[in-house]
Design goal:
This protein is α+β, with helices and mostly antiparallel strands. Strands 1-2-3-4-5 form a 5-stranded mixed beta sheet, with helices on both faces. A hairpin with a 2-residue loop joins strand 2 and strand 3. It is globular and about 45 Å long. The model has no long low-confidence stretch (mean pLDDT about 95). The structure holds coenzyme A (COA).
Amino acid sequence: LIRRATERDLPEVVRLFATPDVGNAKNEIVSDPVHPAYVDALRSMTGDPNNALLVADVDGRVAGVFQLTIIQHVANTGAKIAQIENVVVHPELRGRGIGEKMMRWAIDEARRRGCFRIQLTTNKIRKRAHAFYERLGFVASHEGMKLLL
Ligand SMILES: CC(C)(COP(=O)(O)OP(=O)(O)OC[C@H]1O[C@@H](n2cnc3c(N)ncnc32)[C@H](O)[C@@H]1OP(=O)(O)O)[C@@H](O)C(=O)NCCC(=O)NCCS
């Protein structure tokens, strides 16, 4: 089941973001109770149809997480695109198709919302992740430029 994350999911979601092999893991604060910054961030997205934190729920357990944002363009004749970020599957549950399920859900949702493109960036060193996305049809057609602030 892919569904919007709730505040009850946050402890597990934060642990996923803090998984050592995840790019920005060092930015996370793992604590109990969960740091209020996470609660504020999730609350700020409540009811926003264009920005959602989604979890893969396997028998009530948070098995994976990703964020899907719909961006309205004025260009492209007022079209929309979808952006995927913060994709993580629990280390013990990788290789079972959960990541693929999450990404296919995101692609279907983007289509349903009328987006003409769905996109993401992945670190150049993540060769296995590249293979994962390429199998889903993503093409590494652009250089992702970043400026850390
Ligand atoms: C990438 C990731 C989301 C895939 O989820 P998953 O549930 O394992 O994926 P699936 O079971 O649907 O597909 C398996 C494929 O995912 C990729 N994969 C598996 N383990 C991986 C890992 N530790 N790191 C990166 N990619 C991995 C491989 O391409 C694998 O195929 P292979 O077994 O033929 O090599 C998951 O492995 C993960 O959370 N990795 C760490 C964080 C990450 O790399 N996030 C994406 C960065 S944008």
